[in-house]
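Researcher: We're teaching a course module on how sequence relates to structure. For the next exercise, students receive a sequence and then see the predicted structure as tokens, so they can try to spot secondary structure elements on their own. Here is the exercise chain.
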Amino acid sequence: MSALGALEAAGGAGGAALFRPLSAEDGEQRPAEIESLCMNCYRNGVTRLLLTRIPFFKEIIVSSFACDSCSWSNTEIQSAGRIQEQGVCYSLAVTSRQDMNREVVKTDSATARIPELDFEIPAFTQKGVLTTIEGIIDRALAGLEQDQPLRRETDEEVARKIEEFIRRLRQLKEVHSPFTFILDDPSGNSFVENPHAPRKDEALVVTHYRRSPQQAAMLGLEVLQFNTNCPECNAPASTNMKLVQIPHFKEVIIMATACDTCGHRTNEVKSGGAIEPQGTRITLRITDPSDMTRDILKSETCSVEIPELEFELGMGALGGKFTTLEGLLKDIRELVERNPFTLGDSSAPSKAEKLQEFVGKLQEIIEGRRNVHFIMDDPAGNSYLQNVYAPEEDPELRVERYERSFDQNEELGLNDMRTEGYETPAR
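Model: And here is the predicted structure for the students to work with:
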């Protein structure tokens, strides 16, 4: 089970209770402790994870590791959400000591600047951190002072200039004169506190912007875009396509089309590789609410079965999807609920009652109140269900390879496919 999965299991099926508002007065807000490997001495230490919600912002995960054997420690934060649609830039006019105590969420991808001092902390040079403006300056001071003894011995002039810069940084903490603190994050997941929220803060300017291609590439969001026509209204639209590497599996292609004319949106996932030599049958025994967070890739050739509900979804239904197990089960529920011939006014009462009972049982699985087997059968071998113990074996997950039947090869168009004899004859 993943660390987040362990927290969800401890906190119950309801995700909302996991992220409590950040407050020093909340006596029940305690971190979860997980034994984990120290990357310094390779003995076991303790990681403490705290899932919290920043008021008027969003959910974050604060992690802190400490090793009793070698005293190595590490603290960082991660956003609990996805990369935002736009980047964000905070510009704060610091005019008092109270401003130095403002909370700051600085992610890995954020750049912090103080223009008056020509001071900058570039993106991806520090781990994400939940701190204050004073805390960011203190971290910078600690980093600059760390190598000063060596600099004094090897290059006294450089050491003198850095000492002067350190002195000016320390003066900033006293706020003898105003200065500007800028936090620029193309992921949109950084934050500077507004102590007057929900009212406007006159000292804080928040600007949202569209990421540049360079910033998108820096965040790993290289997306190809090409023109097409909307499948619903045939108006000109654009399709975004991205190649994604799934850990311990293979590359997949994610495609999304959005139409500005009629609002129609579609998304699908296709395998980035060839049909596998064998088919794949994946069986997961669902025993814990955290199983709902497992990543899942269902190709268009994959069928789904839940034996305990006597349910089977044939290949082609719902198309290709890259989602979570919870997301796929909700798509199946919506597919049943939207069927006008089974749950509409014209449906037979007995049939409608059975389907309502099925939807109820499906909801119990989603909420972690019913243990069942979830089976994915893909003759093309291009589907995937996350092993949360990877690279170790998952005790609840079984993956079987099998030889395809003639009918399965026929359905995949493999029986009439010729791959020999295409070589250009020698001249």
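Model: If you want an answer key for the exercise: The first strand starts at residue 20 and ends at 21. Residues 156-174 form the longest helix (19 residues).
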